[in-house]
Amino acid sequence: MRVLLIFIRLAYQQAAIYRFEFWVRIGGVFIMMYGMLSLWKTLSTQGVRLGGGIPLEQMPTYGTINIIIFSLLSAAYSIRHYVAGQVRSGKLELDLLKPVNFINFMLLRNFGEFMTGLLVTGIPGLVFAIFVLKVQLPAQPINALLFVLSLLLAYLIFFAFNLLVGMVAIVSLNISSYTWAIDALVSFASGMVVPLTLFPDKLKALLYLLPFYNLYQSPLQIYLGSAHNIYQVLAIQLLWVVVLFLCAHLAWRIMDKKVQIQGG
Amino acid sequence: MANFFYDLKLYASILRLAIHTRMQYRSDFFIGLFGVIFSNLANLILIWIILEKFNALAAWSLYEVVLLYAIWLMSQGINALFFWNMLGLENYIVDGSFDQYLIRPMNPFLQFIAREVNFMGFGDILLGVSIFIISYNRLHLSWSATQFLWLFIIVLSGTAILASIYIIFSSVSFWTGRSKSLLRIGLRFQQFGQRYPLDIFGQWYKVFVSFFFPIAFVNYYPLAGLLSKPNAVNMPILAYLSPFVAIILVLLAIIVWHFGINSYGSTGS
Amino acid sequence: MEAQVVKVPIIQVKNLTKVFKTAVRKTGRFSALHSLINPEYIEKTAVDSISFNIRKGEIVGYIGPNGAGKSTSIKMLTGILKPSSGKVEIAGLIPYKNRRKHVQHIGVVLGQKTQLWWDIPLIESLMLLKEIYKVDDKTYKENMMVFEELLSISDFQDKPVRQLSLGQRMRGDLAASLLHSPDILFLDEPTIGVDVVTKEKFRVFIRKLNQEQKTTILLTTHDMADIERICERIIIIDEGKILHDMPLVEMKKIIKGYDVLEFEINNEKFNATALNSVFGNKLQLNNLGHRRFKIDFDSAELATSDLISYLAQNYQLKNIAIKEPEIETLVRDIFEKSENN
Q1: pTM, two decimal places
Q2: Which residue of A has its CA nearest to C34?
Q3: Second label for C145, Cα 20 to 30 Å away, from A60, A260, C172, C226?
């Protein structure tokens, strides 16, 4: 626990040092939130019926809060480069010996960044969204609470996913060619801009097989109170957390074996 | 200055080397190409989904929006092809390898961008041209030669605007040593704002995207003009201003870069 | 090369100073928040009013501990950094002001970083540099022949730089820096991590270069052998200030007694008294524990081979090593010694 606090403190100090970045990040988040809000506000004046989970009046809130989620999840991007870098330089073996320890280590390391994101852009962003942009508040207090839980689960899913992406570096030295396409897939399939409920049926069915909608759509549905069964949504998120962490564990095992044979 | 023009010749030679280098990594090229096409396709599908439900985005029909996207892709493609290395400026400054550009008798800027050629830009250009042709046909447009010439100028202006933005944002590294987050936000913002006609956004946003971060001049205003549509702020003259905006931004970029290098000479790394 | 009045030094440095502003880390509860809104800066003087002149054709060693201000001063000499105050003039030009002209006169090799293009054959990098520095064909051919003769460059010039060994890469960097026949060569830790054979090639090359082309050379290094075999003059810098500026022979007088022999024996006991009676006060013995010992001596007064044969005859040597003095200790001791003088 104490280790966790240290990591948080470290990340926060890091952010303080890079002042300029701090202001830029917040500014960027505010602007994007405003942009999303405008987009959906204008679209909602067109009075179209959005057959599907989320009614039109809720879309502005949907789009705006998504930006906040985005800024929180961004903390996990650095994992990719870190892991890929370690793989490339053969230093991965030095990073603790057992996969469980490795994953814990990465989690602790990154959680600090997550907390920084929360303090630096998440909470200010939320305040901005609610008081300035006047988005809707969570349907009920319990929604707010479960929303936070859902956010944490979303973060864990994204975290594990990025670990896997980083480990792909074992197969190909340069991951930047992939990451572009992967990010596109993720934002597309996660309901970040447009909830999957609006997608054509066949595509929708396909995308629901992937974990990504749990990153944005699920937490937002809980927030807005438009989920059929909140606990089911949470359960699916939890399931994906478990699945992805297992995959990461497995991938690490395979990687470890490969490294030992090839000699790093 | 005579020096600059001589340097352009050198730039071509160095660029040749960069291309040579890229050729070494064949598989990366194809994967990258695939990635570019895939990610843009994903964006286009999103646009299609929205437009399917809403029929039009404030008087812009589906194929008109796709046209908007196409023009942006073409400008962005050329930009990516030649100015990609700009995004990595922070790395060179932080580990000191930027110094080598200061100890050679050649313009450091040209040296720096000549180092990398990003073939993914080709993917952008290819895709952009393809969807342009498709949309052009679907909309049953028939433009004159002059209009196509104008389009060509617009695309080049767009490239200049986007490249200048890259340069200005990256140059921040000269002062603070970091520019990645600024660039990331700038790029994200661009990707997000470039796809939709300006009309759907609020007043503040329109002002921001026209006068502070003028990406609206890359595709929106000129296309509104070409399609004879009223634009979001109802000033038809804006349709013709892209080249001028480009020139202003290029000048700004040159100034910022120069100040940046000066500052680098004062504070090192 | 420009005609110069022989009397004017090719490198003139006077009261050269460089001050950096760095943001200060505050302490306290809300310090992080505080720094966010209202940052504070402190000034750090990396180079403090240094002065020296170097004449054409000199080979100067520029040494000092890490963080002493060496890199910063070299950056000012090469034109990468602007001085905070003071004057620097090289071949009649001010580096950061007349950069384009100035760099034609200088070649730079930075130990860790290469100037060459990573993924393509070395020779292509060189041909590109030929174009950039506007080297004519004749000079290019001549220089390449020299590189071939002394650096064996054709052995690896067709390989991409990323496939080269460190020694080969260093030779490549040398060639790259000298392709345009500069008047002055700056070498910043060029032989770090390089094998012994290549190091020797490097030293021979530098000396020849200096003899034949009268190239002025400024070398920073941590390798004592480099200094002894190449340099004629030593400038010692520490904490931004010049401590000493003297010919090598002078420095050798001061650094007497800096040879070190470390060894380990199998025998139970070591007879220090006997050792001292044989060699008098020409050495100093330190017991490092666990049967390991260190002897400080001066190989000019006491031949290393004599010492070793004495030890070998009288003891069972498990391990023996001749150590070179470290620059840091050398600099500190020189400083103290001159203070005490």
Answers
A1: 0.79
A2: A16
A3: C226
Neighbours of B243 (CB within 10 A): 18
| Pair of tokens at residue C61 | 């060693």
Q: Would you call C35 and A12 a contact, using CB atoms and an 8 Å cutoff?
A: no
Radius of gyration of chain C (CA): 24
Rounded alpha-carbon distances, angstroms, from residue A44 to A76, B57, B197, C45 = 33, 11, 16, 61
How far, in Å, CA of C329 to CA of C337, rounded?
12
Residue of C43, C186, C167 whose CA lies nearest to C107: C186
> Cα separation of C153 and C144, whole Å?
8
Residue B25 in contact with partner chain A when CB distance is under 8 A: yes
Report pLDDT for B132.
94
Phi, psi angles (nearest 5°) of residue C237: -125, 140
Confidence (pLDDT) at C88: 93
Residues of chain A with pLDDT under 50: 263-264
pLDDT at C223: 78
Other CB atoms within a 10 A radius of the CB of residue A140 amount to 10
- Please report where in the chains the tokens 């200030």 appear, as a residue: C241
User: Rounded CA gap, B11 and A255, in Å?
Assistant: 42
Tell me which chains share at least 3 CB pairs under 8 Å with chain A.
B, C
Q: What is the model's pLDDT at position A264?
A: 43
Q: What are phi and psi for residue B176, nearest 5 degrees?
A: -105, -5
SS3 A213: helix
- Measured CA to CA, the distance from residue B66 to residue C172 in angstroms comes to 51
For an interface test with C, which of A10, A17, A21 has the most C Cβ atoms less than 10 Å from its Cβ?
Answer: A17
| Site of tokens 């095992």 | A253
Beta strands C11-23 and C85-90 are antiparallel
Q: Do C32 and A22 touch (CB under 8 A)?
A: no
Domain residue extents for chain B = 2-267
User: Is the CB of B38 less than 8 angstroms away from the CB of A32?
Assistant: no
Read off the tokens for C166: 């460190």
- Tens of pLDDT, residue by residue over B198-216, are 887 878 788 888 888 888 8
Residues of chain C found within 8 Å of residue B100, distances taken between Cβ atoms: 110, 113, 115
Mean pLDDT over each residue of chain B, to the nearest integer: 86
Pairing verdict, β C233-238 and C59-63: parallel
- What is each CA distance from C86 to B267, C78, C263, in whole angstroms? 16, 15, 49
Judged by a CB distance cut-off of 8 A, whether residue B258 touches chain C is no
Amino acid at B104: R
Interatomic CA distance for residues A198 and A196, integer angstroms: 5
From the centroid of its chain, how far is CA A52? 24
B49 CA to chain A: closest CA distance, Å? 6
Tens digit of pLDDT for each residue in C21-57? Answer: 776 655 555 555 555 556 677 788 888 899 999 999 9
Tokens 């002894």 locate to C228
Residue with tokens 């892209």: B242
3-state secondary structure of C320: strand
Report CA-CA distances (Å) from C185 to A102, C107, C206: 48, 5, 10
Tell me whether strands C259-265 and C106-110 are parallel, antiparallel or unpaired: unpaired
The CA distance from A67 to A75, in Å, is: 13
Q: What string of DSSP letters covers C53-121?
A: EE-TT-EEEEE--TTSSHHHHHHHHHTSS--SEEEEEETTB-TTTSHHHHHHHEEEEESSS--S-TTSB
Which domains, ranges and CATH numbers included, belong to chain C? 11-253 (3.40.50.300), 256-324 (3.30.70)
Q: Is the pLDDT assigned to residue C83 strictly greater than 70?
A: yes
CB contacts of A28 in chain B (<8 Å) are: 185, 188-189
Task: Break chain A into its structural domains and give their ranges.
Answer: 2-262
What's the rounded Cα separation, in Å, for the pair C69 and A128?
A: 48
